[in-house]
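Box S2. Input/output pair 1.
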Amino acid sequence: MFCYKIHTCGNEVLVAACDKDILGKTFFEGELQLEVKESFYKRGAAPLDELEKVLSGATIANLAGNRVVDSAISAGFVDKENVLVIGGVKHAQFAVLL
């Protein structure tokens, strides 16, 4: 399962998605911090096999969690070389040029 929230502003559609089990947690790696806030990442929840459908409408995405990021890589949304690992948790972002 993953949690997600869709934020819109004008033509931009930002999808925030995370692994359900890291929601509400904070991770650290040196000076980096990844805070997985419920207010940003959770409006709905779905099985991981629906992630591609949720991301297909995004112009921007913010992804946190090993399963979510790995699924986004497999679906071609994220290049694995552009993934950060913060406190053992993968984090990635992508943007689509309009």
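Box S3. Input/output pair 2.
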Amino acid sequence: MTIDEDSTGVIWATWTQVAGSASAGWTNTVYVNASAPGGTSWPTPFVIPASDPHPGPDDISAVVAYGHNKIGVMWSDQISNTVFWATRTDGTSATAASSWHDQPALKGRGLADDHLNLKSLQGDTSGRVFAAVKTGLDDTSADKTLPELLLLTFKPGTGAFTQSTISTIGDCVTRPQVLLDGQHNIVHVFQTAPASTVSGCAFSGVAGSIYEKTASMSNPVFASGRGTPIIEDSASHNLNNVTTTKGDVNSATGLVVLASNDVTKRYWFADKSL
């Protein structure tokens, strides 16, 4: 589940919820909920009023506030090979279908997987949203040059997403997190990949070390490779699941990321100035 706060003080939450059984089959549904201002109370959760709120059982959703008065919800759907994006304006009915507009953010065979992370730059007058998403192309192709992680950039002025490759299948990366530095116009992406002493991997998604890659927010073109190791446990190459703040970063805040080692049962962190 992820949360964010809109311009009226309402806290929004989204998650996916699986029902059914192995014999009868499984149904997954994208739910949202909106609190009273300040999160003081919560009504009954509801299914997002979108054209396809039923992704695969493994899929997830995320929410972000953007553009000073908008809420956006993104979810993966491996059944339809689509990453969906639904938006609404603050102050409109939370449950009415007429308040929501949904569209594909990414669509195509093998392009949807169940890893995504959303961020917006609150001071950005254009209201851009940046999403790091993982594809499933490693399951559909042997071409190691195809994208494993993509950065999707939503531009409200056009109402569409652009995309750029963060890392390829050959980089063997997973679990992306995106972080925005508006002061320096830089988008940071953190990802898991095998340790820096390891070349190649048995499969995408293997634990190892945490890497950082950066690009210009205005023209997000990432250099090739896994990036720079930012957290590495030389005694146990099992770091994974990097996480960081939802807010913007700058030279006053610095940057902090956290990751876990499931084998040694330890959390690791890295911090750096900007």
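Caption for Box S3: The chain has a mean pLDDT of 95. DSSP finds no helices and 19 strands in the chain.
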